[in-house]
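Re: the 178-residue chain
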Amino acid sequence: MMLVSGGLIALPSWANNWSFEKIGFIPKIFPAAYEKLLAEIVATIIPATDTPGAKELGVDVLIRKILVDCYEKEVQDNFAKGLHEVDAVSKKMNGKPFVQAGGQQRLEVLKQMEKQEPAPEQTARSQTPPAPSFFRLVKELTILGYTNSEYVMTKLTGYVAVPGHYYGNTPYTSQKSS
C-alpha cells in the first residue's frame, strides 16, 4: 500500500517534467543537418504568406514521425539519399547548399528534382509496386501534413469537430398528405 501511495505522490512531478526530447519522441533517422534541410524543403513547397507555411506549422517534424512510424527502413534510406541529392543538385546549380540558397534558387532545385521523377506509366508497367520516390513522397507528405494541421483545419477551412447542436427534446408534428 505504501508503494502505491508513494508512486501516486511522485506521479505529478514526473508528469510535469517530461518532454518529447527526453523520451525520444522521434528517433533520429538522419543527421540534424538533414532535419534542417527537410524543414527548408517543406518551407519552399508551402511558404509562409499571410498564413503560416509548412515549416511554421511543424510539417517537417510530422514527416519525420510518419517516416519512422509508417515506412520501412528502405524508404527511410531512400528519403535520406533524396535529401542528400537535393543538396547536391543545389550545389551544382547554385554553388551553395540548399539551406543557403535564395527562395527562387530553392524553387528551381525542387523543379529539377521533380523533372527527375520517373513517369507514372513507367512505374505502372512493373509487376511489383516501386518504393515511393523521394520528391513525390516529400511533396505528398508536405501537402498532407499542411492540409490536416490544426491551424488549417480550424482557421482556414472552418472545420468544427462536432457541427451544429443536437436538440433532443423537440416536439414532433406529423404532416399528413392531402
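The mean pLDDT is 80.
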